[in-house]
Design a protein that fits this description.
There is one protein chain. With 539 residues, the chain is an alpha/beta fold. Helices cover 33% and strands 28% of the residues. The chain has 4 domains: 28 residues, no CATH class; 235 residues, P-loop containing nucleotide triphosphate hydrolases (Rossmann fold, 3-Layer(aba) Sandwich); 174 residues, P-loop containing nucleotide triphosphate hydrolases (Rossmann fold), CATH 3.40.50; 78 residues, no CATH class.
Length: 539
């Protein structure tokens, strides 16, 4: 019995055995479900992955961490068959495999939740989930069973969706749920999450962490790309770090810290707390009175008679759980949607019915929630995107002819100041850049306009800790220059660190206005509990 017990005792990646009272040790191979060995992937002007080796253990959550443009999404796109590596091999269960396209990946049990959604906007949620794996009978789609499976998965994992809603009409957060359900519907066992929490609320992030732990218990293996160190520390077993396309190492999460991971990622110490001096409040820059904005997804109004002011020299944050009217409020404010009622004044001038360009000329800058839809022209070059809001100015045109040299010079200056990384500099096509560097390009353009009002919606979405530190400092600098900053954020740490004043939005109404508030109290207002308390007390 002792011999049998000893023979099955596994320690330190080896089997300990006893034979005739002589101890020995046989080395055993790790149980890797996926191995990416010496992967090199190049694009024009840049080596995105430079001889990278990544090994995923069976039944583990393995985080992939790195700066914007470090090559994380590229590496996962190689594994999923979206790109083909110039060098290196991929192994599944110890056997070399060829992954030429996503269909190969799905056949191997590999699924991916993409950072930039791969959805057809004119299709319904259900159609998007089953696209490519549809059941048919006599040439007709059979959706009943698919709908039942989608709703069962939705209920099981807390990813509630309306299967009949069109993707064009649902929020960014809801689109993220559809991406996750697409992967779950295909019963994949190796799950790639590329920045899955970038558009989720804190509550939704916690739910996703629980879902990932549940996947692990079911025996699934997860590769998890994120910039959020707190998420890695909370859910990952191991973490591999990339920097500028090179592999920096893999660490056990139990043996490391946030500070050590950030140093591995950016090569220096990072300040996690925002330093700012006391605010000096000036005149009212933005005045919103009784704003009403219609909802696209239902008959009710998304914004219901909201009024607030933002002064020079302050950062006002609108905090709330996603889907409570923030998006529509910003659309109405920036001219993307007309108002049903109310007025907007900027620096004392009525801009309620002004065009987007006129609002920009009046002193408004906008960092949008959806950088692809409203922030960039993806098939334009980086330099063209940098002057989208200013190309008509004398600096950049003469009698309708663009001054290419001036545009190039201006773009190069912003690229250097804001550390926007791209393979071909100012002539890089925006679509080919990493999500984080696309975001930095938008922020550079909007801040450099020297606005009176900066409307910043999820400004650090998809950015690494070094870039977040820089952007936070930029927002504080704008405030200290006497600019008004309206911040819309789902990140409670960001709300707490940056805000001089917090407005809480719930079901299209402002339900709280605070100079300072405990995070627990803020959470209750965001969930609507405090509004119900007040209504009950009033009745």
């Amino acid at each position: 019995m002792d011999l049998l017990k000893a023979c099955f005792e596994v320690k330190y990646k080896s089997i300990v055995f006893n034979y005739n009272n002589k101890w020995g040790r046989y080395k055993v191979a790790e149980d890797y479900v996926i191995e990416m060995l010496h992967i090199t992937k190049e694009f024009p002007g840049i080596k995105a992955n430079d001889d990278i080796t990544l090994q995923l253990k069976r039944g583990e959550i393995h985080a992939l961490l790195g700066e914007n443009g470090a090559g994380k999404s590229t590496l996962m796109s190689v594994l999923f068959g979206l790109y083909q590596a110039e060098q290196g091999t991929i192994k599944k269960d110890g056997k070399e495999v060829q992954v030429k396209d996503p269909n190969d990946a799905n056949r191997l049990g590999i699924g991916m939740v993409h950072q930039h959604f791969k959805l057809v906007e004119c299709f319904t949620v259900l159609d998007n989930i089953i696209l490519g794996v549809e059941d048919t009978k006599h040439g007709f789609l059979q959706k009943d069973e698919a709908r039942k499976k989608v709703m069962a998965l939705s209920e099981k994992y807390g990813l509630k969706v309306d299967p009949e809603a069109y993707v064009s009409d649902i929020s960014v957060g809801m689109q993220q749920r559809v991406e996750i359900l697409k992967m779950l519907y295909r019963d994949n066992e190796i799950l790639i999450f590329d920045e899955p929490t970038a558009v989720l609320t804190p509550q939704e992030i916690n739910e996703l962490m629980e879902i990932m732990r549940g996947f692990k218990k079911e025996g699934k293996s997860i590769l998890f790309i994120t910039h959020k160190l707190s998420e890695i520390m909370a859910v990952a077993d191991r973490c591999s770090v990339l920097r500028k396309g090179k592999y920096m190492g893999t660490v056990n999460i139990a043996d490391t810290s946030r500070e050590e991971l950030s140093r591995m990622m950016v090569g220096r110490d990072v300040e996690f707390e925002v330093e700012k001096k006391s605010k000096t409040v000036g005149d009212i820059i933005l005045s919103v009175k009784d704003m009403v904005v219609a909802s696209k997804s239902h008959n009710n109004n998304a914004v219901k008679g909201i009024s607030f002011d933002v002064h020079a020299g302050e950062i006002v944050c609108i905090a709330g759980i996603e889907g409570n009217g923030q998006t529509e409020l910003v659309y109405g404010l920036t001219g993307l949607e007309p108002l049903k009622g109310g007025t907007i004044e900027l620096c004392g001038k009525d801009i309620t019915h002004a065009s987007i360009r006129d609002r920009s000329k009046a002193g408004m800058s906008h960092i949008p929630e959806d950088r692809h839809k409203h922030g960039l022209v993806l098939d334009y070059t980086l330099e063209q995107n940098m002057v989208l809001q200013r190309y008509w100015e004398p600096q950049f045109q003469n009698h309708g002819v663009i001054k290419s040299g001036e545009v190039r010079k201006y773009a190069e200056g912003l690229i250097e100041r804001f550390d926007v990384r791209s393979g071909q500099g100012p002539v890089t096509i925006a679509r080919s850049m990493s999500g984080g560097n696309q975001q930095k390009a938008i922020i550079a353009r909007e801040i450099d306009k020297d606005p009176q009002l900066l409307v910043a919606v999820q400004p650090t979405r998809g950015l690494d800790v070094g870039a977040i530190e820089y952007i936070h400092n930029q927002l504080v600098a704008e405030r200290d220059k006497g600019r008004a900053v309206l911040l819309i954020s789902l990140e409670l740490d960001e709300v707490r660190s940056l805000s001089d004043r917090i407005l809480v939005i719930y079901e299209g109404e402002i339900v709280g206005d605070f100079d300072s508030v405990a995070m627990e109290e803020l959470g209750l207002y965001m969930a609507g509990a405090k509004r119900r308390d007040r209504k009950e007390a009033a009745s």
